[in-house]
Write the structure tokens for this entry.
Amino acid sequence: MKSGKILFVAAMLVSAALPARDTPAAPASAFARAIDAEITTQEQQFLPTAEAMPEGKFDFSPESLNLPGTELKGVRTFGMQVKHVAADNFAIWAPLTGRPEPAGLNAPNGPPAMKSRAEVLKFLKDSFAFSHEAVRALTSENALETVEFRGQKVTRMSLVILALTHMSNHYGQMVEYLRLCGVVPPSSRPMRMSPPPTPAGR
């Protein structure tokens, strides 16, 4: 029951954050499509990496390894890393929609009650869906206009850069977490070659 409530809250975050559509949306600009393609690239890299960590190790933190000569006390667990990126996906892209950061988001850490692997992964997927939607109204003309983000005036383009670099930064950390858990990151696995086509008539 608790899990169902958390998923409901996550769904409400998405629906509340997305702009209502009474009329068909105007086609996205070439600029928006280019940024959206970058989001897709990040999504196709980040999501499989998050999904690669098994249930039993989703709360792994390198602090538990007690590696000599390291300073890892208090670093986020793998699951916390994923939830943090999802929360900030919502928070960073929200100003582009003209709406405030979704209520209950608790960025940069995400909803405190959301803990299970399934809930966090759904939260991540929802955050990417929100990212794609938020960028639709971006144009080369409004990219340098300022919006408010966490009490400061920043350009829309600076938020684009922040969102993309933020995901890349945490992607690198999560790859190391996977390696420390004996999991080969999806992007480092050998590519599966398709078998050659069977010659006609055989």
About this structure: Residues 2-11+34-183 form a domain with the Four Helix Bundle (Hemerythrin (Met), subunit A) fold (CATH 1.20.120.450). The chain has a mean pLDDT of 87.
